[in-house]
Amino acid sequence: MNYVRSTGRRTDEPSRAVSFCSPAARAVEAQYLQSLLPGRAAAVTITDYYYNNMLYWMGGFYYGPNFRKKLLQAYSSSTAPDLEALDWRWSALLFAILSSSIIASPEALASTWGFSCDDKVRLSRDWGAAAASCLNMGNYNSQYHICSVQAIYVLHAYEHLVGCTNQWVALKGTAIVIAKGLGLHK
Q1: Spatial distance between the Cα atoms of 12 and 86, rounded to a whole number of angstroms
Q2: How far is CA 48 from CA 41, 45, 54, 105, in A?
Q3: Which DSSP string corresponds to 32-48?
Q4: Which residues, including other chains, have CB under 8 Å from residue 105's CB and lie 6 or more apart?
Q5: E-strand stretches of the chain
């Protein structure tokens, strides 16, 4: 107890985010998430499919041209963006769009993109889990951001078609709290 008193009250620095895991685990998770990213052409094609065929139906949760601009900027310097240089909550939105698009796309179309039916299910699950992981990496529970709300609601198509209802219901409850915290309910 004397040590605690002598060191004074501990507070987080303003720029320091509280992480859900150790630095080593965070680095491993970041590398794994990085490995899940598709190449530029596939990312643009799959996200364009969502924009052109699903965005309106899903409630228009994000502004497509702005998202595409950020996507092209992220992929501008290489075949895959450096996730650690991006906002994790935006990365969650990217993975959510990828996941929902690939699982909802017709098999014939997905095969023209180079994905089999088995690939669609596997990638949708991987990308859906990656979206949830990116939300955690971005400390979405304590650092409210519109991308967190958007990512969670875009995951609805993934949840519905792949069958991860319990996870989505829990995330949806959190999204409502975040949206209220951002003043979106007014």
Answers
A1: 22
A2: 10, 5, 10, 12
A3: HHHHHPPPHHHHHHHHH
A4: 46, 49, 113, 120
A5: none
Listed in sequence order, the residues at least 6 apart from 146 whose beta carbon sits closer than 8 Å to its beta carbon are 182, 184
Q: How far apart are CA 157 and CA 105, in angstroms?
A: 11
Q: Which residues contact 2 (CB under 8 A, 6 or more apart)?
A: none
Q: Which two tokens stand for residue 16?
A: 């320091």
Distance CA 130, CA 99 (A): 9
Cα-Cα-Cα-Cα torsion 147, 119, 56, 67, nearest 10 degrees, comes to 40
User: To which residue do tokens 């620095």 refer?
Assistant: 13
**Exposed e or buried b per residue across 89-105, where buried means at least 16 C-beta atoms within 10 angstroms of its C-beta:** bbbbbbbbbbbbbbbbb
pLDDT value at 181 more than 90? yes
pLDDT, tens digit, 9 for 90 and up, residues 156-174: 876 766 666 677 788 888 9
pLDDT (tens digit, 9 = 90+) per residue, 90-118? Answer: 999 999 999 999 999 999 999 999 999 99
CB 103 within 8 A of CB 161: yes
Q: Which residues contact 100 (CB under 8 A, 6 or more apart)?
A: 50, 54, 58, 124, 154, 155, 156, 157, 158, 161
